[in-house]
Write a structure and sequence with these properties.
single chain; 684 residues; five-stranded antiparallel beta sheet; 6 helices; 10% helix
Length: 684
């Protein structure tokens, strides 16, 4: 008999003789442009134990949990000689400045105006500071987003001179012509006077949505709309510019960013929402109000005021000091670990924070959609998030880009789902799941309809913890009997592999070659590497780099493998030839459960204490030592990054899904497509 403690909050398997009994381990989870006509220019800035066998599981009542690029359970591994899953053990105690330079840069040009050639529609609204102070004399410009590159290509849509001014009540009216009905548009309010004198640095915005839907709407622009719009669209903006744009190959990511903005506020009133429109997402109101107050304290003063000077100095990045409130807020969004303790959080928007938070990320907590012990998650090409729920019979939950549940109250079932531990999406939008409960793999269409009958069961498939899809559609699983199984794109048998130092394999990822990298949770603390046909590239795997209880693996733009450890809270890096590059590892605040690489080739982990961490590709920590923290998050399991740059994590202690708005670079999904197009670690 072999035992292993549960990983943090993950359920474990206990192997007794030749049989396997599933037992519960608790309820938790596993391991630019000139803005105004005053002639002032903007800086370009920079943006940027000892027992054995049982996989770490993720908090199902009876099944072990997952570990692929985002796995989560904890436990130590078996020796690899048993045909059953290694037992799991819970780690005893899982761990739980800005410069003020005033460098200026050359002026940037305003996006070109589009001359109306068809009957124009009318846009009207009000610019306010705080709850009710009108901003008079603000220059209003309506832009359509660009499609020629990130932060570029926006065009002015208002007729005549391309802009209008607000009156003494802060009101404005202008005529415009849509470049297309579906083009996303946004409104910029630059300069003006909120009562204390003209303020050239007062720049606010509102993300309006599709051009064809805004006719006859009355718009409010204020600090709330500015903060929310900036966070939702930060990855499509550049400091020092009012241009918003994305690549022609990532129109969906930019469009979804506007949906996220609409989740946070009502554009016709300028008021913050308490819940998302679908009713299942909780908005971080207090943090949003505090950020809005940072802007209001400057906007309600005159050019050169102490409030503005302090704001700009506190939000300077790399020696470049913002010259307006829009760039100041964008710098906060892009650098959420920034120190703003010198600034006052009180102001017209309430409630505000009593003091500076751990970090300035904004996150929404979503419930519903059938979430029930969610495990390793994935984003599809449309930015939908898929969550496997480790129950029996198992289910899949699907959430839209705005966090709206698309899978009903109970989730999608069928297809042989039984304690599913991980999902992966293929290029056709089909969703594949690894079922630990019945030794099978399931396939569902993008609408949730099952395609796999009672599940695909092939020779050698045993207690699959995770799966990944290669560029040709091959499905690989790592199994609880120290093996890897390959299925073809129809769910048929394509291979079974047991060599290469496999030792409680818990997660896997495919590189461009396409080799299969496997994170082994076992005592050997090694990473295995197999060819696509299953031949070991090295007999006993690679060691070093600080690995201790590996539960996640991801591949970066250069083909390096990044490994997340649960038993010792570190991230490790290996070169394409298997050489460790991370010394004793890059330190996390707690054991990791899963790992991902974003479109800027930076590394993200979901941590067992509920935080998430981010590292530069060289291993330098970008997030604070505590990680980024979301209120309500308790123990991260899966992690996924979508085409808008939102970071999503599953948390099965609270049966919730968390979205960190715009925190990462837009990422090519699904991963099969990134492999095919050599876009891993690159923006779409």
């Amino acid at each position: 008999m072999r035992w292993k403690k549960c990983l943090h909050g993950i359920s474990a398997s206990v192997a007794i003789a030749t049989g396997t009994m599933l037992i519960g381990c608790g309820t938790g989870t596993v391991p630019g442009a000139s803005l105004i006509s005053t002639g002032s220019s903007l800086p370009t800035g920079t943006g940027s134990s000892s027992s054995t066998t049982n996989p770490p599981s993720t908090g199902t009542t009876t099944s072990p949990s997952t570990g692929t690029g985002t796995s989560s359970s904890s436990g130590t591994s078996g020796s690899g000689t048993s045909a059953t899953a290694p037992p799991v053990t819970t780690p005893a105690n899982p761990p739980a400045s800005s410069t003020t330079g005033s460098t200026t840069t050359p002026p940037v040009t305003t996006p070109p105006s589009t001359t109306p050639s068809t009957p124009a529609a009318t846009l009207s609204g009000t610019v306010l500071s705080g709850q009710n102070l009108p901003v008079r004399g603000a220059k209003m410009t309506l832009y359509a987003v660009g499609t020629s590159g990130y932060g570029a290509g926006a065009r002015s849509l208002l007729g005549g001179s391309g802009s209008v001014l607000t009156d003494d009540r802060g009101r404005f009216t202008g005529s415009y012509v849509c470049s297309s009905a579906t083009a996303r548009v946004y409104l910029i309010a630059a300069g003006g006077n909120a009562g204390a004198g003209a303020n050239q640095g007062a720049v606010m915005m509102s993300a309006l949505g599709a051009c064809g839907t805004i006719n006859a709407q009355t718009i409010v622009v204020n600090e709330i709309t500015t903060v929310a719009s900036v966070y939702a669209l930060e990855q499509f903006m550049q400091p020092g510019s009012v241009e918003i744009g994305g690549s022609s190959s990532n129109a969906i990511g930019l469009a979804n960013g506007f949906k996220t903005a609409a989740n946070l506020y009502d554009g016709t009133t300028g008021r913050l929402r308490a819940k998302t429109p679908a009713g299942n997402g909780t908005i971080p109101q207090t943090k949003l109000d505090s950020l809005a107050n940072l802007l209001a304290n400057c906007i309600e003063s005159a050019t050169g005021s102490v409030a503005c000077t302090r704001l700009y100095q506190a939000t300077a990045i790399a020696g470049v000091t913002p010259q307006n409130t829009l760039t100041a807020m964008l710098n906060i969004a892009l650098h959420p670990a920034i120190n703003l303790k010198s600034l006052t959080l009180t102001g017209p928007y309430q409630p505000w924070l009593a003091g500076a938070p751990n970090d300035w990320t904004l996150s929404i907590e979503y419930t519903g959609g059938g979430l029930n012990y969610g495990q390793l998650i994935a984003s599809d090409a449309e930015g939908n998030i898929w969550v496997p729920n480790a129950t029996d019979p198992g289910t899949l939950s699907k959430f839209g880009p705005a966090g709206e549940p698309l899978s009903g109250a109970a989730g999608f079932g069928g297809g042989g789902l039984s304690y599913p531990q991980a999902v992966a999406i293929d290029q056709g939008g089909n969703v594949w799941a690894a079922n630990q409960g019945n030794d099978s793999v399931s396939e569902h269409r993008s609408n949730g309809t099952a395609k796999s009958g009672a599940g695909f069961k092939v020779s050698g498939l045993k207690l699959p913890y995770a799966l990944a899809i290669d560029g040709s559609g091959g499905i690989f699983t790592v199994n609880g009997d120290n093996s890897v199984t390959k299925l073809n794109s129809s769910g048929g048998f394509a291979g079974h592999f047991q060599q290469g130092g496999l030792d409680f394999p818990f997660a896997l990822a495919i590189d461009r070659s396409p080799n299969v990298w496997v994170a082994n949770y076992g005592f050997s603390n090694r990473v295995s590497r197999l060819s696509n046909a299953g031949t070991p590239v090295i007999a006993n795997g690679y060691s070093g780099g600080g690995i201790n209880g590996a539960v996640g693996v991801a591949i970066d733009a250069s083909g390096n493998a990044w490994i997340a450890s649960f038993d010792r809270p570190v991230v490790s890096k290996f070169s394409t030839s298997g050489s460790p590059l991370s010394g004793s590892g890059y330190v996390l605040p707690a054991g990791a459960a899963s790992i991902a690489v974003d479109g800027d080739n930076t590394i993200w982990t979901a941590n067992s204490d509920g935080s998430i961490s981010r590292f530069a590709n060289q291993g330098t920590a970008i997030s604070p030592a505590t990680g980024y923290v979301s209120n309500g998050a308790t123990a991260g399991v899966g992690i996924a990054i979508d085409p808008s740059g939102n970071v999503w994590t599953s948390d099965n202690y609270v049966n919730s899904l968390f979205e960190y708005i715009g925190a990462a670079a837009p990422t090519t999904v699904p991963l099969q497509v990134a492999i095919q197009k050599n876009l891993m670690g690159k923006r779409p």
